[in-house]
Amino acid sequence: MEISGLVITFNEEKWIGGCVEDMFRVCDEVIVIDSYSSDRTVEIAEEMGAKVIQQKFLGDGPQRIHGLQFCKNNWILNLDADERLEEDSYLFIKSGKFFDAPYDGYRFRRNTYFRDELINFSGWYPDYACRFFDKRTAQPGTTIVHQDVTGKNVLKSKMHLRHYSWTGFHQIISKKNQYTDWQVEEYVKNGKKTSFLAPFVHGWTSFFKCYIFKKGIFHGLDGFTFALIQAFFSYMKYAKLIKENKKK
């Protein structure tokens, strides 16, 4: 099919093989934009038939935008290395119905797994991500963390991706910490200011929303834990921003 697979990587040897294989189910090429991985990511991707281009990491959105120029097709399947197509999204893309549809992008619901357990509570589902779009009228945003694709008519679909993001709590905390650093970098660049109370307000609001309104309370210790992780992310963004603004 006339679809290009695009994935950005850095030390993803655990996931990249399965990702490339999955994309080749519907794509006629797969482009990997790698940030000079020190593991076997590049070797595995090339063995699977992908074309690898090396690029120093520019940020989540800019790195994806950089990769578009190497994609020969207009329609782009832009998975993360730890994402896979669920059967409903695979069958939709394979059908080719999107060619005649009025949409230039599709947001999928992500089924996120912690080890082998589906985490569909405490704000972790539905975790929408636009991973399929027509680059002529839609493209990734320019933010350096948690970018979102913008287009003329992007559909928020009921189709799914499988997300193998977390293998342990240490990895969650490490990644969340990195994400907050990137988010604060974005805030500082845009001149964002905040108050002393912001970390407490945002942290508490996030916890309350995830634990009560997004049903974490019905999932025992896991519900409390994953709501707390979301609150940690919200709290630390603003705590770090206060520190950075004080430096300036």
TrEMBL record:
Keywords associated with the record: Membrane, Transmembrane, Transmembrane helix
Family: Belongs to the glycosyltransferase 2 family. WaaE/KdtX subfamily.
Residue ranges occupied by any Glycosyltransferase 2-like domain in the UniProt entry: 6-88
Protein name, as recorded: Glycosyltransferase family 2 protein
Residue ranges the record marks as coiled coil: none
Keyword Transcription: no
Keyword Lipoprotein carried by entry: no
Segments crossing the lipid bilayer: 217-238
InterPro entries given in the database record: Glyco_trans_2-like, Nucleotide-diphossugar_trans
Protein's organism: Galbibacter pacificus
